[in-house]
Specification:
This protein is of the alpha/beta class. Helices cover 65% and strands 9% of the residues. The longest helix has 53 residues.
C-alpha cells in the first residue's frame, strides 16, 4: 500500500531543472533565434527605462551647458529620436517574443498529443494515468497567462528585472555605498517577505486543487444526460448544490488566505519603501543643497532610485509567476515521463503469417501488484493458441474475457508470468510492431467523425487503397449501403464535424468495424463480443459470417452466448479469471459441468424467445 501511494505521487523537479527544460524545448521547437529574440528583448527592455529615466537629467544638463539654442534643440531632438527608436524596436521585439512563446505552447501541445496517442494504453486508461493526463493538460490548455508559456515568459522577465536592478545598483553605488546598502537591505527584507508568503501560498495549492477537482467531478456528473433522472427522482439536487457551495467556499477561503498573505507582504513592502525613500531622497536633497551634486545629477539619481523600486517589484512579480506555474510544470513533465514503453526488438520473421501465442502462468491485476483490492482478474493462466486456430472464449460477465484479449494483443502487460509470440517474450518486442499483427473488433463499436473510408483504412484521407477498401466493404456486407450515401465512402460519419454526416445503425456499425479489421489484413483476428447488442439469432448468423471471412487466419471469438461459437476448433470456458473447461462444443456437452449447464439454460431461453417471436408474427398477420 505504501508503494502504491509513493507511485501515485507526482514527481517534483527543481526550479532550475524546470527552467532548463523550458528553454531547451524552446530552442528545439522554435530555433536558436528564439533565445536570441528573448535576449534582445531583455537588452532593449533594460535600456529603454534607463533612457527614459535619464531624459530629464540629460535635458537639464544640455540647458545649463551654455550651448546655442539651435544646438540645444538638435541635441534634445537627437536624444528623443534615440529614445523613440529604442521604444519602437523594444515594442517590435516584445510582440515577436509574445508570438514566439505562444507558438511554443502550441508546439508543446503537439508533443502532449503525441504522447497521449503513443503511450502505453494500460497506463493511460488507469485512474492514475487519467489524473496525470488531466493535470498535464492544464499546463498547456489554460490560456496565455498560465502554464509553460507564462512560465517561460516569467523567466525572461526575471532576467530583465535582475539585470535592471544590478545596473541601477551599480549606478547608485558610484554615488554612495551607504545609499546602495540601504537599497540592498530593503531588497533583502522584501525578498524574504515575498519568499515566505510564496512558500505558504504554494503549500495551499494542493488543497485548492483537490477541492476544485471534486468540484469539476460533480459539475461533470450533473450535466451527463443519463444521471439527470436519478438526480431528480431521488431529489439529489439540494445535496449537489450543498456540496458545490461547500467546495467553492472552502477553495475561496484558501485563495483569500493566499491573497491576504500577498497583501500583507505588499503592505510591509510599501512601508519599507516609504522608509527607504525618506532616507535616500533626504540624502540626495542634502547633497544638492550643500553643493556636492548638480541639478542634472540630482534628477538622474532621483529617477534611478525610483526605477530601482520598479525593478525590484518586477523581480518579485516574475518570481511569483514562476512559483505559481512550477506545479503545472511538474505535472506536465511527470505525465511525459509516465507510461513510457521502451522500443523492443522487431516482431519475429513470421511477420504477416499466423503466430503461435503462448501464456505461461500469466496473472493480471488492475492497479498492479500494489492494488488494494488484492485480487487477480486473470489467475495463473496457461494457454497455447495454435497458428490458424479458431478459438472461442466464453463465460459469464466478469469472467476475465476482455482482459485476456487485451493481454493477448499487447494492450496490457501481465502482472506476473510471460506471454510468448512465436517463442519470444512479447514484452521484449516493439509494441507498435506487435499491434500490426492483430485486428480487433471490440465490444463497444463506434465510428470517428471522419469520412467512412478513413474509419476503415485508418490512414490519411486519399491515401487508402481504393481496391482494398471496396473489397473489405463488400466482404463485410456494407458496400451496397455505402453506394447510397451522399458522397459514397467519402461521406462523413456522425454530425460532429459535418452537418451532412451520416449515423449508421447498430448492425451497420458492426459491419463497418468488420471492414476495418479486414482492411488491416492482420494474421490474427479478435472479435470481442461485437454483436452483443444483437438478438441471439442475428448474432449467431453474424458469427458464422465472420468465420467465413477470417479463413486462413488465427481467430479468437468472445461471446457470452455459447451457441454463437459452436463452429470453433476449441472453446475455453472462463470463470473468475481461470480456464475451467476446454474442448469442442460436442466434447464440452458430453463432459457436462458449467458449460453444458449454461448452454442448456440459454438454449431454453432462446427457444422461448423464438416461439414468442413466432406468435407475435402470427398475431400481426391476423390483426
Amino acid at each position: 500500500m505504501k508503494k502504491k501511494k509513493e507511485a501515485e505521487k507526482s514527481k517534483k523537479y527543481s526550479i532550475w531543472d524546470n527552467c532548463r527544460y523550458a528553454f531547451r524545448h524552446l530552442r528545439q521547437k522554435e530555433g536558436t533565434w528564439a533565445l536570441g529574440l528573448c535576449a534582445g528583448d531583455v537588452g532593449l527592455s533594460v535600456l529603454l527605462p534607463f533612457l527614459e529615466t535619464a531624459l530629464a537629467g540629460a535635458v537639464a544638463a544640455i540647458l545649463v551647458s551654455g550651448r546655442q539654442p539651435g544646438e540645444i534643440l538638435m541635441l534634445v531632438a537627437g536624444y528623443v529620436a534615440l529614445l523613440q527608436t529604442v521604444r519602437f524596436l523594444q515594442g517590435h521585439l516584445r510582440n515577436k517574443r509574445r508570438k514566439t512563446l505562444f507558438m511554443f505552447r502550441i508546439d508543446m501541445n503537439m508533443d502532449y498529443f503525441e504522447k497521449t496517442v503513443r503511450m502505453d494504453g494500460q497506463s493511460l486508461e488507469s485512474a492514475l494515468g487519467q489524473k496525470k493526463w488531466q493535470d498535464a493538460k492544464r499546463n498547456l490548455c489554460s490560456g496565455n497567462g498560465v502554464g509553460i508559456e507564462a512560465y517561460t515568459k516569467a523567466w525572461c522577465d526575471l532576467l530583465l528585472q535582475l539585470i535592471g536592478l544590478i545596473l541601477y545598483a551599480a549606478i547608485v553605488g558610484q554615488v554612495s555605498l551607504i545609499l546602495l546598502s540601504i537599497l540592498i537591505l530593503q531588497t533583502l527584507l522584501v525578498s524574504w517577505l515575498h519568499a515566505k508568503t510564496g512558500k505558504r501560498a504554494y503549500a495551499m495549492e494542493d488543497e485548492i486543487e483537490k477541492k476544485w477537482g471534486i468540484f469539476q467531478y460533480l459539475r461533470r456528473e450533473t450535466v451527463i444526460a443519463g444521471n439527470g433522472k436519478d438526480i431528480r427522482m431521488y431529489r439529489m439536487g439540494k445535496w449537489f448544490l450543498g456540496l458545490f457551495h461547500q467546495l467553492i467556499d472552502g477553495a475561496c477561503a484558501l485563495i483569500d488566505r493566499q491573497q491576504t498573505g500577498y497583501m500583507a507582504a505588499g503592505m510591509a513592502e510599501t512601508l519599507l519603501t516609504f522608509a527607504r525613500s525618506l532616507l535616500v531622497y533626504g540624502w540626495l536633497i542634502r547633497e544638492m543643497v550643500i553643493g556636492n551634486m548638480t541639478l542634472p545629477s540630482f534628477l538622474l539619481y532621483v529617477g534611478i532610485v525610483a526605477g530601482f523600486g520598479a525593478w525590484m517589484n518586477g523581480l518579485f512579480g516574475a518570481w511569483r509567476q514562476i512559483l505559481e506555474n512550477e506545479k503545472l510544470m511538474d505535472a506536465y513533465r511527470d505525465f511525459m515521463d509516465f507510461g513510457t514503453v521502451e522500443e523492443g526488438r522487431p516482431v519475429p520473421e513470421r511477420l504477416g503469417r499466423t503466430h503461435e501465442i503462448r501464456f505461461e502462468h500469466v496473472c493480471f491485476r488492475y492497479g498492479g501488484t500494489d492494488s488494494p483490492e488484492g485480487e487477480d482478474t486473470i489467475r495463473d493462466l496457461n494457454l497455447t493458441i495454435r497458428p490458424g486456430e479458431r478459438l472461442a472464449l466464453v463465460g459469464l460477465n466478469g469472467a476475465g474475457k476482455t482482459t485476456l484479449i487485451k493481454l493477448l494483443c499487447g494492450l496490457y502487460r501481465p502482472t506476473s508470468g510471460t506471454i510468448y509470440l512465436d517463442g519470444t517474450d512479447m514484452q521484449s518486442l516493439d509494441q507498435r510492431a506487435v499491434f500490426r499483427e492483430f485486428s480487433v473488433v471490440f465490444q463497444d463499436v463506434f465510428a470517428f467523425s471522419f469520412p467512412l473510408a478513413d474509419n476503415v483504412s485508418c490512414v490519411d484521407s486519399g491515401r487508402e487503397d481504393s481496391g482494398k477498401l471496396r473489397e473489405s466493404l463488400e466482404k463485410a456486407g456494407l458496400w451496397e449501403r455505402v453506394q447510397t450515401l451522399p458522397k459514397g465512402a467519402r461521406t462523413s460519419m456522425n454530425k460532429d464535424l459535418d452537418e451532412a454526416g451520416v449515423t449508421l445503425s447498430g448492425g451497420e456499425m458492426q459491419k463497418l468495424m468488420l471492414a476495418r479489421a479486414l482492411y488491416k489484413d492482420a494474421p490474427t483476428v479478435i472479435l470481442d463480443e461485437p454483436t452483443a447488442a444483437l438478438d441471439p439469432i442475428a448474432e449467431s448468423e453474424m458469427y458464422e459470417k465472420y468465420d467465413e471471412l477470417v479463413q486462413g487466419r488465427t481467430a479468437v471469438f468472445i461471446s457470452h452466448r455459447l451457441s454463437s461459437t459452436r463452429f470453433c476448433d476449441r472453446i475455453l470456458f472462463l470463470e473468475n479469471g481461470r480456464i475451467v473447461q476446454e474442448g469442442t462444443h460436442e466434447e464440452l456437452m458430453e463432459k457436462g459441468g458449467a458449460y453444458a449447464e449454461l448452454f442448456a439454460l440459454q438454449a431454453k431461453y432462446y427457444k422461448e424467445e423464438k416461439q414468442n417471436a413466432k406468435l407475435r408474427q402470427e398475431e400481426g398477420q391476423y390483426a
